[in-house]
Amino acid sequence: MKEFVKKRLSLTITLVLFVFGVLMITFLVAGGITILLQYMDIISSSSQTAQNKSQNPGFHVLPLIYFLGFCILLGTAFTAFLSKKALNPIRKVIDAIHKVASGDFNVKVDIKGIGELEELSQSFNKMTQELSSIETLRSDFVNNFSHEFKTPIVSLRGFAKLLKENNLSEEDRQEYLDIIIKESERLADLSTSVLTLSKYENLGIITDKATFRMDEQIRRTIVLMEPKWSAKVLTVNVKLDNVIYIGNEDLTQQIWYNLLDNAIKFSEQGGLINISLTKINSSILFVIQDNGPGMDELTKAHIFDKFYQGDTSHSKAGSGLGLSIVKRIVELCDGDVHVQSEIENGSTFSVTLK
Ligand code: ADP
Description:
The chain is an alpha+beta fold. It has helices at about 1-40, 50-55, 60-85, 90-100, 115-165, 170-200, 215-225, 225-230, 250-265, 295-300, 320-330, and strands at about 210-215, 235-240, 245, 270-280, 285-290, 335-340, 345-354. Bound molecules: adenosine-5'-diphosphate (ADP).
């Protein structure tokens, strides 16, 4: 109850007290002045003699009109003076809104005391905080995007220029051509990933739903990637429950593909990957565990950020978009994705789908 009054009624109570205060001050001052004038015999009191009243019947009405007029003037003056102070918090919010409109998202409003206005200032500060983090994300995205595209392009141009030289050995020529092919493939993968992510980010709901066997889909993905994991002599243990799922097959396929691709990529030669799919009531739990190098706390905190790559040397092929795509798809499926990992102790990704 106290909380309700503080949050919902304090503005009303403050306004009522304000008006009451102005009226009281006005009447006290006007009353005081009237008494003073009567005392000084400048205006007459109502206790006029019967003779006076009969001589001038409207005489005692006039002071009342003066009094009321004076009250109105005085009240208006007090209101003009005090409302400036009372409206100060609103002025602060208006100034802050102007700043936000001109692009300054770091502005904060601090209003204390009046419940509703305090709530307004808190919501306002939350809004500017959100806007500023969206702005940071946007500019980070543009920076990362430009950086990721520029690097392979610069390298392509450099090696293409070298190829133009006449005194190149056949061995060097082949090496430069291989680099050009690799870099152009990287560029093509990057463009595909950016387009895929942007497509999924703009997708509000999942369309083209169908009923399919999820365990079969995961098995197919593992077989599809066999060349990659057998090249590293990895052991892949699979334990999949029979799961019938209604969803978009292309989307879920990308979850398994990206997570398995990472597990293979980050596993050492001869490593082990465990994959399981379990039905728990109405949810499905997919777990993929590797015994690769694991991640530190900083890497774990950022792996779902766009373009983030734990290994800044970019020694492993990748764009830093795979897990952003996984996260977006899982969000679209109303699910969750988690990671458990420790340096030198491998990584475990768990995906829950409803
Ligand atoms: P990419 O693999 O293209 O670099 P991702 O978005 O798929 O981009 O992954 C982001 C980062 O998360 C990787 O650069 C890596 O640091 C970390 N990561 C992802 N999966 C694993 C894994 N299984 N083991 C260790 N680190 C991983």
